[in-house]
Design brief:
alpha+beta; D-Maltodextrin-Binding Protein, domain 2; Dipeptide-binding Protein, domain 1; Dipeptide-binding Protein, domain 3; eleven-stranded mixed sheet; about 30% helix
C-alpha cells in the first residue's frame, strides 16, 4: 500500500522550485526531493499513506514517542508521564504544562479527547488505530484518562502513531471539524487541514500542491525551542538521477530514497553525503484468494506457484545491490517473532508441479498492478518487467499494469485489483502493526484482496493479546507458517533507504516510521 520513491515530471519540479520564490537563497531552508504523489490528504484523521508521516512528525505531536536511538523504548512527548492500571484497561496521561498550539491556544486534555474521538468517528482508514479505545475522558486540563475495551499490549506503541496526533480542537471546530458520532459525514475540516496545520510541532504547514510540493515553516513559539531550520519543502522530482543532478547543482539539499546504483556516485563526491537507514517497510506481492476477484489466484496452488517463481536473489542482489533483505511473511526482520528461515525460495520445478495440480499445466494469465512510484527504490517499469519475466519462466503470463500512485491506491482499496505489488510502511513498531492489517477480512490490505483465512486470523488474534515474550514469539511463528502456506502476501524485499544529502546538512536522523526529523536537523552556510 505504502511506498517511497521519487517520481513525476521534471517540469513539475522546476515549476515548484520557481514557486518557492526566494527560499532557495535562504541558507536555513531545506528542500527535499521526495515523492509527494502518494498524499491524498493531510488531515491526521484521514491520511493513511507514507509522505504524510514525515509531514505529521514535523507539524504535529503525539503523547509519547519511540526514539530512533531505541525502537523498543517509549519517551515522553506531549505527555510528561503516564500510568497503567493493574488490569491493563486504563491509561492515565499527564500532559506537559506550558505547551501551546501554533494558534497560541494552550494544550488541554480536551484537545486530546477531541482529536482521538474525532479520529474514531470519522471512520476513515486510520480510525482502526483507535479500535481498542472505548472511552477518552478529560479529567482536568492536564489529565487524560483512556479506557480500553480489552487489554492491549501494543497500546503504548499505538499511541505513537501520527494519526493519534493532538490537534487544536478550537481551531479545527472553527474550520468545520467535529468529533460527533456522525463525523464521517458532518466533519468538513479536511480541506482546511490539507493547507494548514493545527498542531504543537516545530513546524507549521503552509501549503500542499498535489503531486508537486509540501511547504512548512518554522514554529518560532515551539515549546522545546525554535528549530534551526527556517522551513522545509518536500518537492517532487522525476527520478533519482534527475534528483541527484539537482543536488549536485545545489537546487535541492536532500534526495530521499535514491536508487541503489547511484550510491557510489554519491560517496565519490566530497560535497555530498550518503546516509543509510534500515527501514521496516515491506514490499510484497498480494494475491487475492477470492475466486471472483482473484480468478485463478483463488487456488492456493497457483498462488504458491507464483511465490516459487520469483527470482528473489536477482531482485535483492542484482537490482538492489544487496541494500535490502527479505522476511518470510508480513513481519519484517527486527520485529518480534520474525523468522526468515520460512521464506519462499525460487523453485521453478515446484511451481510447474503446483500449476499442473491446479489444472494450469499449459499456463495461466494474471494481471499485476503497481503504483508508478516503484518498489524498494526500483522504478515501476524495472521491477514490473523483472517479475513479469520471472513468472513467464513458470508459464505464468503476467500483464503489468502500472498506475498513477493515487489511482492505484484508490483501486486497491476498492477491491478492484487481482494481484498487487505494494509496500507497507509502519506507523508504530509492535508486531500488531503488521498482523492487525494482513490477517482479517475487514481491515487493511487483507480487506483489499478479500482475504479470509481462519488460520491466519486466529494466530494474529492470539499474538495480539499475549504478554509473555516467549509465548508471543511462538504464536507469531505459527502466524508466519499460516501466511507462507496461504501465499496471499509474499514479501519481495525489506528495503534499506539510501538518502543523499549536501555536506551542509547536519544531524540527519533516520526513523523507520517518519523517516526525517527536521527539528534535529540543521544546515551550515
Amino acid at each position: 500500500m505504502r511506498k517511497r520513491f521519487l517520481l513525476a515530471a521534471v517540469l513539475v519540479f522546476c515549476l515548484s522550485v520557481f514557486s518557492l520564490g526566494t527560499s532557495l537563497a535562504q541558507d536555513d531552508v531545506v528542500i527535499v526531493a521526495a515523492d509527494v504523489q502518494d498524499i491524498i490528504t493531510l488531515d491526521p484523521a484521514r491520511a493513511y499513506e507514507t509522505t504524510n508521516l514525515t509531514v505529521f512528525h514535523a507539524v504535529y505531536e503525539t503523547l509519547i514517542n519511540t526514539p530512533a536511538s531505541d525502537l523498543t523504548a517509549f519517551e515522553p512527548g506531549l505527555a510528561a508521564s503516564w500510568e497503567v492500571s493493574e488490569d491493563g484497561l486504563v491509561y492515565t496521561f499527564k500532559l506537559r504544562e506550558g505547551v501551546t498550539f501554533v494558534s497560541g491556544n494552550p494544550l488541554r486534555a480536551e484537545d486530546v479527547r477531541f482529536s482521538w474521538v474525532r479520529l474514531k468517528n470519522i471512520k476513515g482508514s486510520p480510525s482502526f488505530y483507535a479500535d481498542a479505545v472505548s472511552a477518552v475522558e478529560a479529567v482536568d486540563d492536564l489529565t487524560v484518562k483512556v479506557t480500553l475495551s480489552a487489554p492491549t499490549p501494543a497500546f503504548l506503541s499505538i499511541v505513537t502513531v501520527p494519526s493519534l496526533s493532538v490537534l487544536d480542537s478550537e481551531v479545527v471546530k472553527a474550520n468545520g471539524g467535529t468529533d460527533a458520532e456522525d463525523a464521517d459525514v458532518t466533519d468538513t475540516a479536511g480541506p482546511w487541514l490539507d493547507q494548514n496545520s493545527a498542531g504543537t510541532g516545530p513546524f507549521t504547514l503552509t501549503g500542499w500542491t498535489p503531486n508537486t510540493q509540501v511547504t512548512m515553516v518554522r514554529n518560532d513559539s515551539y515549546w522545546q525551542g525554535a528549530a534551526a531550520l527556517a522551513g522545509v519543502t518536500l518537492a517532487q522530482v522525476n527520478d533519482s538521477t534527475t534528483a541527484l543532478q539537482q543536488l549536485e547543482r545545489g537546487d535541492v539539499d536532500i534526495v530521499d530514497n535514491i536508487e541503489k546504483d547511484l550510491a557510489e556516485q554519491v560517496t565519490a563526491n566530497s560535497s555530498l553525503k550518503l546516509e543509510q537507514g534500515q527501514s521496516l517497510n515491506l514490499s510484497y506481492i498480494a494475491m487475492s484468494p477470492n475466486e471472483t476477484l482473484g480468478g485463478p489466484l483463488g487456488s492456493k496452488d497457483v498462488r504458491q506457484a507464483v511465490a516459487y517463481s520469483i527470482d528473489y536473489d536477482g531482485i535483492l542482489d542484482g537490482l538492489l545491490l544487496g541494500y535490502t533483505d527479505r522476511p518470510a511473511a508480513m513481519l519484517p526482520l527486527g520485529i518480534q517473532g520474525s523468522d526468515p528461515s520460512l521464506r519462499y525460495e525460487r523453485d521453478l520445478a515446484k511451481a510447474a508441479e503446483l500449476l499442473s495440480a491446479a489444472g494450469f499445466a499449459d499456463g495461466v494469465d494474471v494481471t499485476l498492478s503497481l503504483g508508478s512510484g516503484g518498489i524498494c527504490g526500483i522504478p515501476a517499469e524495472t521491477i514490473g518487467a523483472k517479475i513479469q519475466a520471472d513468472l513467464a519462466e513458470a508459464k505464468i503470463n503476467a500483464t503489468v499494469n502500472i498506475m498513477q500512485s493515487s489511482n492505484f491506491l484508490t483501486d486497491y482499496r476498492a477491491q478492484k485489483l487481482q494481484m498487487v505489488l505494494g509496500t507497507w510502511t509502519p506507523d508504530y513498531l509492535d508486531a500488531t502493526m503488521w498482523s492487525d492489517y494482513f490477517s482479517y477480512p475487514d481491515v487493511g490490505p487483507s480487506f483489499r484482496i478479500m482475504l479470509d483465512v481462519p488460520e491466519i486470523a486466529a494466530a494474529a488474534a492470539a499474538g495480539a493479546v499475549e504478554t509473555d515474550t516467549a509465548a508471543r514469539n511462538a504464536l507469531y511463528l505459527d502466524y508466519q507458517k499460516a501466511h507462507v502456506d496461504a501465499a496471499v502476501f509474499v514479501p519481495v524485499c525489506q528495503n534499506r533507504i539510501l538518502v543523499a544529502t549536501s555536506s551542509q546538512i547536519e544531524n540527519y536522523v533516520f526513523h523507520p516510521v517518519y523517516f526525517f526529523d527536521f527539528y534535529a536537523m540543521s544546515k551550515s552556510s
